[in-house]
Amino acid sequence: MNLKEFGIEKDKNDVLKSFKSRFVNNPNEIYLDGNSLGKLPKISNAEISELVKNQWGSKLISSWNDHWLKLSEDISLKMSNLINSKPEEVLVGESTSVNLYKIIYALLESNQFKKNLVTDCLNFPSDIYVLDGLKHLTDENKLTILDYADEINCNYEILKKSIRNNPGIYCLSLVSYKSSFLYSMKELNEIADKYQSIIVWDCSHAIGVTEIDVKKSKIKIALGCTYKFLNGGPGSPSFLFISKKIIHQINNPIQGWFGHQNPFNFDHKYIPSKNISKFNAGTPSILSLLPIKHGLDITLEAGITNIRYKSIEMGEYLIKLIKEELFCFNVEIASPEKSKMRGSHITIKHDEAWRICKILIKGNKNRKKIIPDFRPDSNIRLGFAPLYTSYTDLYETVITIKSILKNKEFLLIDKTKNLVT
Prior knowledge:
Elements (H helix, E strand, L loop, with lengths): L2 H10 L16 E3 L10 H15 L5 H22 L6 E3 L3 H15 L6 E4 L4 H9 L9 E4 L9 H10 L3 E5 L11 H10 L3 E5 L18 E4 L14 E4 L43 H17 L1 H22 L6 E2 L11 E5 L3 H10 L6 E3 L1 E3 L3 E5 L7 H16 L6 E2 L4 E2 L1
Helix pairs in contact: 1-11, 2-8, 3-8, 4-5, 9-11
C-alpha cells in the first residue's frame, strides 16, 4: 500500500471524521493553519447572531442576569474538565499576555520564589516581551534567556542545570510555536519544586490538541489562548489555571471590580475573591467568550485522548510524506521526529519557503488553495487540527509543494513586490 492509499484508508477509519462537518469549510481549500487560528464552528455562527440580535438587541442589560454572568463560570467549568483541574482553579478571560503579566508580577511580588526571571529561546516572542517588561522587579534587573544549539529542540541539560543553579520563576511554552517541540511537563515541574522554583506554562499551541492533566503533571500555573485548536475565534480570551496550593500566596496586581469578593456591593474597599476569581479584572467580554463555549464542547465531545492519538498519527504520516517526496528538493524537517516530543504541527525548512507559501495560498484553477503558515527566516508550519484536517489533505499538500519545487513555480513570485510576475 502506497502513502496515498494509506491516507485514504486512515480517513475511512477515522473516528473523528464526522467532526469536520461541524465547522465552516471551503471545499476548494486545505486549511493547515489551525495552530494559529482555528476554524469557525457552525453553532458559534448561529449563536453569536442570536446573542447580538436578541440578548443584546432586545433584552439589553437584563441579559447580564439572564445569560452573561453565568457564561464565564460555565466556560471555566468546561475548561477545568479539559485540563482536569478544580473549577475554582481556572478562569477564562483577557488575553494571554495580560494574564502572563499579572501572574509574573504577582509571583515576583509574593517573595515565595527567588526573584530570577528565566525563559528560553523557544518561547513565543510575545511572552519574552512581557517578561522583559517586568525584569525591573527582579534582583538583578535582568531576564535570562537560555540558548540552545538550534531552535528545534530544548536542551534539557541546559534547562535543568539552570533550574538547579539559578532557581526562580521560569516561563516556558509547552509546545514551541516554531518547531512544535513538546516539553516534558511533569519531569520539569518536579525539578522546579526540588529547587524552589516555579514554571509558568504557556499552553497556547498545546491546549485542545495535547493531553494536559494539571494534577498528573504537577502544574502550578498554566495559561494560554483559546483561538487556536480550541476554535474560540480571533482574539478570544485566554484561560488561566492556578493551583489551589499557591493561589492564596499571590495577588492580582490589577484590583478590578470583577476580582472583588462581592463586586456588586460596590464597596470602596477592595476585598479580593478567595479563589481564582481574584485574578479577574474588568467586565467579561461576552461576545468573545461565547464561541469558546462551543469550541470546548466540541473538543470535550470528541475526547482529548482521541484528538491526541490522531494528531500523533497525522504527524508520523506527514513526516513519511515529506521524507519520500520532498527531501530530494532540499527540504528539511525542523520539528522533532519523535511523537512524544512534538505538538500538532510539522515545520519544514527551505530557502524559498516564503515564496512557496505565497504560491500555496494563491492556488489556481487546477488545484486547491492551501493555507500553511510562514515563519522567518525559511520555515513553513503545517498545522493539522484533528477535528477537521484529513490525511488526504496532508497528502495533497505535500504533492503540491513537490510540484511547486519541481517546476520552480516560486520564481513567479517577485520577492521585492510580493506580486506574481
